[in-house]
Specification:
The protein is α/β, with parallel strands linked by helices. It has one domain: 3-Layer(aba) Sandwich (Rossmann fold), CATH 3.40.50. Helix content is 41%, strand content 17%. The chain has helices spanning 2-26, 52-71, 123-129, 145-155, 172-181, 187-195, and strands spanning 35-40, 76-81, 109-112, 134-140, 159-168. Helix 2 runs parallel beside helix 6 (187-195). The longest helix is centred in the N-terminal third of the chain and has 25 residues, at 2-26.
């Protein structure tokens, strides 16, 4: 019964965002795609609480996406969560991305204090400076900060896509639900899109 209530609540939360994405797609052609990859909260402090099933493939998919964006000289934005009450300080190892993630020190870094990566940060300005209009999202948690950032992207007029296989949450079934509900795109589809950029 609890699971049914959770799913029903999540559907009520998600349907408006999905409808907004469909309306934006139906609106017709727009500017050429200028994408960025957002790698969200892959921090040592949070990974132990995530589904082992998700972690098995997610890091590989995230690294493949990071490498594809680097190859095309497209922006990769590193997003870190920090909460003074319970998250380790920025100088600690627990705060850092896991070493297995292949982002570069030169990739822009945004530190957030809320689930939505746009709230109280300069992320929107960073993306506008880079002339970005399309976002590919990966990281954790699929049901928390990634989802909140997906909605935040819509509120800031970015087209956004969840990277299927590159999302992690505490429960792999919930991750799959998010990927399915939002028509998450595969790494192969993302690569196809990047290879055909004008």
């Amino acid at each position: 019964m609890k699971n049914l209530f959770f799913l029903f609540s999540l559907i009520l939360l998600l349907v408006p965002g999905w409808m907004h994405a469909q309306e934006a797609t139906a609106a017709g052609p727009s500017d050429p795609m200028r994408p960025a990859l957002l790698v969200i909260d892959i921090q040592n402090a949070f990974l132990p609480y995530m589904s082992e099933e998700d972690k098995k493939t997610a890091i590989e998919v995230i690294n493949a996406a990071v490498n594809a964006f680097h190859k095309h000289k497209l922006p990769v934005i590193r997003i870190y969560h920090q909460d003074p009450k319970w998250t380790p300080g920025e100088d600690s190892e627990a705060f850092q991305f896991t070493k297995s993630v292949e982002t570069a020190d030169s990739d822009p870094k945004v530190i957030k204090h809320y689930p939505n990566s746009f709230t109280g940060t300069d992320l929107d300005n960073v993306l506008k400076d880079l002339k970005v209009n399309t976002l590919f999202l990966c990281g954790l948690s699929a049901t928390g900060c990634v989802l909140a950032t997906y909605y935040g992207a819509g509120e800031h007029d970015y087209q956004s896509f969840m990277l299927k296989g590159g999302l992690i949450s505490s429960d792999s079934k919930r991750t799959e639900f998010v990927e399915t509900t939002f028509d998450g795109i595969s790494y192969e589809t993302m690569s196809f899109m990047l290879d055909r950029l004008r």
